[in-house]
Amino acid sequence: MNDNTTPPYRPDFAVQNGQVVPYADATVSIMAPGLTFASTVFEGMRAYWNAEHEQLYILHLHDHLERLQFSMRVIELDNPPTTADFTAQVIACLQANDLREDCYIRVQAYVDDWGEIIATGPVGSSVVCRKRARVEAFTTGKHFAVSSWRRNAEDASPPRIKATANYLNSRLAGLEAKRIGSDGAIILNRDGTVSEGPGGCLFIVREGQLITPPVTAGILESITRRTLLVLAKDMGLDAVERDVGRTELYLAEECLYCGTGQEIVPILSVDGKQIGDGQPAPLTRRLQQSYDDIVRCRNEAYKSWLTPVYAKDGE
Ligand SMILES: Cc1ncc(COP(=O)(O)O)c(C=O)c1O
Question: Does the pTM exceed 0.85?
Protein backbone atom coordinates (compact mmCIF):
# COMPACT_ATOMS: atom_id res chain seq x y z
CA MET A 1 0.00 0.00 0.00
CA ASN A 2 1.50 3.34 -1.01
CA ASP A 3 1.27 6.45 1.14
CA ASN A 4 -1.63 8.29 -0.40
CA THR A 5 -2.32 10.75 2.38
CA THR A 6 -1.16 13.81 0.42
CA PRO A 7 -2.02 14.87 -3.12
CA PRO A 8 -1.74 13.49 -5.69
CA TYR A 9 -3.58 10.54 -4.16
CA ARG A 10 -2.72 7.26 -5.87
CA PRO A 11 -4.28 4.15 -4.41
CA ASP A 12 -3.07 0.80 -5.75
CA PHE A 13 -6.46 -0.28 -7.06
CA ALA A 14 -9.75 1.26 -8.13
CA VAL A 15 -13.00 -0.23 -9.35
CA GLN A 16 -14.06 0.80 -12.83
CA ASN A 17 -17.24 -0.41 -14.47
CA GLY A 18 -17.55 -3.08 -11.80
CA GLN A 19 -14.02 -4.51 -12.12
CA VAL A 20 -11.10 -4.10 -9.72
CA VAL A 21 -8.23 -2.68 -11.81
CA PRO A 22 -4.85 -1.07 -11.08
CA TYR A 23 -5.57 2.60 -10.38
CA ALA A 24 -3.43 3.74 -13.33
CA ASP A 25 -5.55 1.65 -15.72
CA ALA A 26 -8.83 3.32 -14.69
CA THR A 27 -9.31 5.99 -17.36
CA VAL A 28 -12.11 7.79 -19.22
CA SER A 29 -12.35 9.19 -22.72
CA ILE A 30 -11.21 12.82 -23.04
CA MET A 31 -14.46 13.48 -24.94
CA ALA A 32 -16.73 11.80 -22.37
CA PRO A 33 -19.82 13.94 -21.61
CA GLY A 34 -18.97 13.28 -17.97
CA LEU A 35 -16.01 15.56 -18.60
CA THR A 36 -17.08 17.81 -21.48
CA PHE A 37 -20.59 18.56 -20.15
CA ALA A 38 -20.19 17.69 -16.46
CA SER A 39 -22.59 14.74 -16.82
CA THR A 40 -21.25 13.19 -13.64
CA VAL A 41 -22.75 12.51 -10.24
CA PHE A 42 -20.94 11.12 -7.24
CA GLU A 43 -20.83 10.29 -3.57
CA GLY A 44 -18.21 10.81 -0.90
CA MET A 45 -18.15 8.50 2.11
CA ARG A 46 -15.90 7.83 5.04
CA ALA A 47 -14.86 4.56 6.61
CA TYR A 48 -13.44 4.40 10.13
CA TRP A 49 -10.91 1.98 11.55
CA ASN A 50 -11.56 0.46 14.97
CA ALA A 51 -8.24 -1.01 16.14
CA GLU A 52 -9.82 -2.97 18.97
CA HIS A 53 -12.30 -4.65 16.62
CA GLU A 54 -9.68 -4.80 13.84
CA GLN A 55 -12.48 -3.70 11.61
CA LEU A 56 -13.14 -0.94 9.09
CA TYR A 57 -16.66 0.51 9.24
CA ILE A 58 -18.25 2.41 6.36
CA LEU A 59 -20.59 5.10 7.64
CA HIS A 60 -24.08 5.31 6.13
CA LEU A 61 -23.11 3.32 3.02
CA HIS A 62 -26.71 2.58 2.06
CA ASP A 63 -27.89 6.18 2.48
CA HIS A 64 -25.05 7.49 0.32
CA LEU A 65 -25.72 4.95 -2.41
CA GLU A 66 -29.45 5.70 -2.35
CA ARG A 67 -28.67 9.39 -2.75
CA LEU A 68 -26.49 8.43 -5.72
CA GLN A 69 -29.45 6.55 -7.22
CA PHE A 70 -31.47 9.75 -6.89
CA SER A 71 -28.74 11.85 -8.51
CA MET A 72 -28.39 9.35 -11.38
CA ARG A 73 -32.16 9.36 -11.91
CA VAL A 74 -32.30 13.16 -12.11
CA ILE A 75 -29.52 13.42 -14.70
CA GLU A 76 -31.02 10.41 -16.56
CA LEU A 77 -28.28 7.81 -16.86
CA ASP A 78 -29.07 4.60 -18.79
CA ASN A 79 -29.22 1.45 -16.66
CA PRO A 80 -26.69 2.54 -14.07
CA PRO A 81 -25.34 0.18 -11.39
CA THR A 82 -27.73 -0.54 -8.53
CA THR A 83 -27.14 0.12 -4.85
CA ALA A 84 -26.38 -3.59 -4.43
CA ASP A 85 -23.77 -3.39 -7.24
CA PHE A 86 -22.09 -0.36 -5.73
CA THR A 87 -22.19 -1.85 -2.21
CA ALA A 88 -20.17 -4.83 -3.42
CA GLN A 89 -17.80 -2.58 -5.38
CA VAL A 90 -17.07 -0.25 -2.45
CA ILE A 91 -16.22 -3.21 -0.22
CA ALA A 92 -14.11 -4.80 -3.00
CA CYS A 93 -12.20 -1.54 -3.47
CA LEU A 94 -11.37 -1.17 0.23
CA GLN A 95 -10.34 -4.81 0.46
CA ALA A 96 -8.21 -4.66 -2.71
CA ASN A 97 -6.25 -1.75 -1.21
CA ASP A 98 -6.16 -3.50 2.17
CA LEU A 99 -7.11 -0.24 3.89
CA ARG A 100 -6.89 -0.54 7.64
CA GLU A 101 -7.15 3.07 8.77
CA ASP A 102 -9.59 5.94 8.39
CA CYS A 103 -10.33 6.49 4.74
CA TYR A 104 -12.46 8.24 2.17
CA ILE A 105 -14.35 6.65 -0.69
CA ARG A 106 -15.57 8.34 -3.85
CA VAL A 107 -18.14 6.66 -6.09
CA GLN A 108 -18.87 8.22 -9.47
CA ALA A 109 -21.27 7.59 -12.33
CA TYR A 110 -20.88 9.45 -15.60
CA VAL A 111 -21.56 9.43 -19.30
CA ASP A 112 -18.47 7.97 -20.95
CA ASP A 113 -17.13 7.70 -24.53
CA TRP A 114 -18.10 10.68 -26.75
CA GLY A 115 -21.51 12.31 -26.97
CA GLU A 116 -23.83 15.27 -26.84
CA ILE A 117 -25.04 17.25 -23.84
CA ILE A 118 -28.13 15.05 -23.64
CA ALA A 119 -26.34 11.70 -24.06
CA THR A 120 -27.57 9.28 -21.39
CA GLY A 121 -25.02 6.53 -22.05
CA PRO A 122 -22.80 4.65 -22.19
CA VAL A 123 -22.63 4.93 -18.43
CA GLY A 124 -19.28 4.52 -16.74
CA SER A 125 -18.74 4.17 -13.02
CA SER A 126 -15.84 4.16 -10.62
CA VAL A 127 -14.98 3.63 -6.98
CA VAL A 128 -11.80 5.08 -5.52
CA CYS A 129 -10.68 4.96 -1.91
CA ARG A 130 -7.73 6.35 -0.02
CA LYS A 131 -6.45 6.92 3.48
CA ARG A 132 -7.87 10.08 4.97
CA ALA A 133 -7.32 11.17 8.51
CA ARG A 134 -9.61 13.48 10.41
CA VAL A 135 -9.16 17.15 9.52
CA GLU A 136 -7.16 19.14 12.06
CA ALA A 137 -9.97 21.71 12.22
CA PHE A 138 -12.14 19.10 13.96
CA THR A 139 -10.10 20.01 17.03
CA THR A 140 -9.00 23.57 16.32
CA GLY A 141 -12.00 25.03 14.47
CA LYS A 142 -12.08 27.36 11.47
CA HIS A 143 -12.82 30.95 10.58
CA PHE A 144 -15.48 31.49 7.90
CA ALA A 145 -16.61 34.39 5.72
CA VAL A 146 -19.84 34.92 3.79
CA SER A 147 -19.12 34.59 0.08
CA SER A 148 -20.01 37.14 -2.58
CA TRP A 149 -21.08 34.19 -4.75
CA ARG A 150 -24.69 32.98 -4.45
CA ARG A 151 -25.62 29.30 -4.28
CA ASN A 152 -26.73 27.79 -7.56
CA ALA A 153 -30.51 27.70 -7.52
CA GLU A 154 -32.92 24.75 -7.41
CA ASP A 155 -34.35 25.83 -10.78
CA ALA A 156 -30.93 26.10 -12.45
CA SER A 157 -28.43 23.53 -11.17
CA PRO A 158 -30.14 21.89 -8.18
CA PRO A 159 -27.85 21.57 -5.14
CA ARG A 160 -29.90 18.55 -4.00
CA ILE A 161 -28.18 16.49 -6.71
CA LYS A 162 -24.59 15.59 -5.90
CA ALA A 163 -23.39 16.56 -9.37
CA THR A 164 -19.85 17.65 -10.20
CA ALA A 165 -21.42 20.62 -12.04
CA ASN A 166 -22.52 22.10 -8.71
CA TYR A 167 -18.96 22.18 -7.48
CA LEU A 168 -18.01 25.02 -9.81
CA ASN A 169 -20.07 27.24 -7.51
CA SER A 170 -18.32 25.67 -4.51
CA ARG A 171 -14.93 26.19 -6.13
CA LEU A 172 -15.56 29.88 -6.80
CA ALA A 173 -16.66 30.43 -3.21
CA GLY A 174 -13.71 28.42 -1.90
CA LEU A 175 -11.20 30.32 -4.02
CA GLU A 176 -12.60 33.64 -2.86
CA ALA A 177 -12.43 32.55 0.78
CA LYS A 178 -8.79 31.59 0.35
CA ARG A 179 -8.00 34.88 -1.39
CA ILE A 180 -9.40 36.93 1.49
CA GLY A 181 -7.61 34.83 4.08
CA SER A 182 -10.62 32.92 5.39
CA ASP A 183 -10.60 29.16 6.09
CA GLY A 184 -14.03 28.61 4.58
CA ALA A 185 -17.01 30.12 2.80
CA ILE A 186 -20.65 30.44 3.75
CA ILE A 187 -22.83 30.75 0.66
CA LEU A 188 -26.16 32.57 0.68
CA ASN A 189 -28.99 31.59 -1.64
CA ARG A 190 -30.92 33.91 -3.97
CA ASP A 191 -33.23 34.87 -1.09
CA GLY A 192 -30.22 36.08 0.85
CA THR A 193 -30.52 33.46 3.58
CA VAL A 194 -27.83 30.96 4.49
CA SER A 195 -27.56 27.85 2.31
CA GLU A 196 -24.36 25.93 3.04
CA GLY A 197 -20.60 25.90 2.51
CA PRO A 198 -18.67 24.60 -0.52
CA GLY A 199 -18.61 21.05 0.85
CA GLY A 200 -20.71 20.96 3.99
CA CYS A 201 -23.80 22.17 5.82
CA LEU A 202 -24.19 24.60 8.68
CA PHE A 203 -25.74 24.68 12.12
CA ILE A 204 -25.94 27.58 14.53
CA VAL A 205 -26.96 27.58 18.19
CA ARG A 206 -29.15 30.35 19.56
CA GLU A 207 -30.43 30.30 23.13
CA GLY A 208 -29.46 26.65 23.32
CA GLN A 209 -31.44 25.70 20.22
CA LEU A 210 -29.67 24.06 17.26
CA ILE A 211 -30.79 25.60 13.99
CA THR A 212 -29.97 24.49 10.45
CA PRO A 213 -31.27 25.82 7.12
CA PRO A 214 -34.04 23.66 5.60
CA VAL A 215 -33.58 21.32 2.63
CA THR A 216 -35.27 23.98 0.48
CA ALA A 217 -32.55 26.57 1.24
CA GLY A 218 -30.33 25.43 -1.65
CA ILE A 219 -28.38 22.70 0.09
CA LEU A 220 -27.29 19.17 -0.61
CA GLU A 221 -29.46 16.91 1.56
CA SER A 222 -26.48 16.16 3.72
CA ILE A 223 -26.33 12.84 5.48
CA THR A 224 -24.18 14.31 8.25
CA ARG A 225 -26.71 17.10 8.78
CA ARG A 226 -29.49 14.51 9.08
CA THR A 227 -27.31 12.48 11.44
CA LEU A 228 -26.80 15.50 13.68
CA LEU A 229 -30.54 16.18 13.74
CA VAL A 230 -31.16 12.59 14.87
CA LEU A 231 -28.35 12.78 17.42
CA ALA A 232 -29.63 16.08 18.79
CA LYS A 233 -33.07 14.54 19.29
CA ASP A 234 -31.59 11.45 20.95
CA MET A 235 -29.52 13.67 23.24
CA GLY A 236 -32.63 15.59 24.25
CA LEU A 237 -31.49 18.79 22.52
CA ASP A 238 -33.83 21.21 20.85
CA ALA A 239 -33.13 21.28 17.08
CA VAL A 240 -35.03 22.93 14.24
CA GLU A 241 -34.77 23.35 10.47
CA ARG A 242 -35.55 26.91 9.46
CA ASP A 243 -34.13 29.76 7.38
CA VAL A 244 -31.08 31.43 8.87
CA GLY A 245 -30.35 35.10 8.20
CA ARG A 246 -26.77 36.28 7.61
CA THR A 247 -26.66 38.39 10.75
CA GLU A 248 -27.93 35.48 12.85
CA LEU A 249 -24.53 33.95 12.20
CA TYR A 250 -23.03 36.88 14.12
CA LEU A 251 -25.52 36.47 16.98
CA ALA A 252 -25.03 32.73 17.37
CA GLU A 253 -23.59 31.26 20.56
CA GLU A 254 -22.12 28.44 18.49
CA CYS A 255 -21.74 27.67 14.84
CA LEU A 256 -20.55 24.48 13.15
CA TYR A 257 -19.79 23.10 9.71
CA CYS A 258 -20.63 19.47 8.94
CA GLY A 259 -20.21 16.95 6.16
CA THR A 260 -18.70 13.56 5.48
CA GLY A 261 -15.19 14.86 4.79
CA GLN A 262 -15.09 17.59 7.45
CA GLU A 263 -17.23 15.65 9.94
CA ILE A 264 -18.01 18.40 12.50
CA VAL A 265 -15.88 21.53 12.47
CA PRO A 266 -16.40 24.30 15.05
CA ILE A 267 -16.72 27.73 13.44
CA LEU A 268 -14.86 30.30 15.52
CA SER A 269 -15.77 33.47 13.63
CA VAL A 270 -17.82 34.64 10.67
CA ASP A 271 -16.79 37.73 8.69
CA GLY A 272 -14.25 38.50 11.40
CA LYS A 273 -16.93 38.52 14.10
CA GLN A 274 -16.16 36.13 16.92
CA ILE A 275 -18.70 33.39 17.67
CA GLY A 276 -19.18 32.94 21.42
CA ASP A 277 -15.77 33.14 23.07
CA GLY A 278 -14.00 32.28 19.80
CA GLN A 279 -13.22 28.73 20.93
CA PRO A 280 -14.82 25.38 20.03
CA ALA A 281 -18.04 25.52 22.04
CA PRO A 282 -19.66 23.01 24.45
CA LEU A 283 -22.62 21.78 22.39
CA THR A 284 -20.43 21.34 19.32
CA ARG A 285 -17.96 19.37 21.43
CA ARG A 286 -20.74 17.12 22.76
CA LEU A 287 -21.95 16.40 19.24
CA GLN A 288 -18.38 15.66 18.11
CA GLN A 289 -17.86 13.21 20.96
CA SER A 290 -21.09 11.42 20.30
CA TYR A 291 -20.41 11.33 16.54
CA ASP A 292 -16.93 9.92 17.08
CA ASP A 293 -18.26 7.11 19.30
CA ILE A 294 -20.86 6.21 16.72
CA VAL A 295 -18.65 6.21 13.62
CA ARG A 296 -16.01 4.03 15.34
CA CYS A 297 -18.63 1.55 16.49
CA ARG A 298 -18.24 2.34 20.18
CA ASN A 299 -21.97 2.90 20.58
CA GLU A 300 -23.96 -0.28 19.94
CA ALA A 301 -27.22 1.64 19.60
CA TYR A 302 -26.13 3.05 16.23
CA LYS A 303 -24.40 -0.03 14.84
CA SER A 304 -26.93 -0.24 12.01
CA TRP A 305 -25.39 2.93 10.51
CA LEU A 306 -22.14 1.06 9.87
CA THR A 307 -21.10 -1.55 7.32
CA PRO A 308 -18.09 -3.71 8.28
CA VAL A 309 -15.61 -4.29 5.46
CA TYR A 310 -13.64 -7.33 6.59
CA ALA A 311 -15.14 -10.75 7.25
CA LYS A 312 -14.60 -12.02 10.80
CA ASP A 313 -14.59 -15.61 11.99
CA GLY A 314 -18.02 -16.59 13.19
CA GLU A 315 -19.78 -13.53 11.71
C1 LIG B 1 -22.09 21.02 -1.16
C2 LIG B 1 -22.14 20.04 -0.03
N3 LIG B 1 -23.04 20.21 0.94
C4 LIG B 1 -23.12 19.38 1.97
C5 LIG B 1 -22.26 18.30 2.09
C6 LIG B 1 -22.38 17.37 3.24
O7 LIG B 1 -23.05 16.22 2.81
P8 LIG B 1 -22.82 14.84 3.51
O9 LIG B 1 -23.04 15.07 4.97
O10 LIG B 1 -23.85 13.94 2.94
O11 LIG B 1 -21.44 14.42 3.22
C12 LIG B 1 -21.30 18.10 1.11
C13 LIG B 1 -20.31 17.04 1.23
O14 LIG B 1 -20.33 15.99 0.92
C15 LIG B 1 -21.24 18.97 0.01
O16 LIG B 1 -20.34 18.78 -0.95
Answer: yes
